[in-house]
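Reviewers of the previous submission asked for a worked example of the structure-prediction workflow described in the proposal, so we include one complete record here. The input consisted solely of the amino acid sequence. No template or homolog information was supplied to the procedure at any stage.
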Amino acid sequence: MRVFTVIAIGLALTTGGSFAREPGSFKKEVLPILEAHCFKCHGPENQESGLRLDSRAAMLSGGDFGPAIVPGDAAKSFLVEVVTTDDTDIQMPPEGTRQSSKQEAILTNWIEDGAVLPGQMDI
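From that input alone, the workflow returned the following structure tokens.
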């Protein structure tokens, strides 16, 4: 993981991980990132590596490499690892435009704050 991940996790802790607590923040901030960078390969139509990222239950059960998220612990979340790494063997997306530092921080904060998806219960 890049040093950025540590900084983003620190930001999540010092800001209280405000992203998931604000009404509509998932739809406004997290969902557009997943739609732009993840759903083509890990959405309702395709699930490469057995991973689907369009529901909380699917993220928790994960794919071939285990759970995509560990709510409340971004450092243990595979999703954070693959979107922040410089390792071309595992970085996501593998081609095309990657997430910005701000988008990485949004995903990290959302996971640190419990990875809440409106209307979806914990499993």
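The chain has seven helices and no strands. We consider this example representative of the routine output the project will generate in years two and three.
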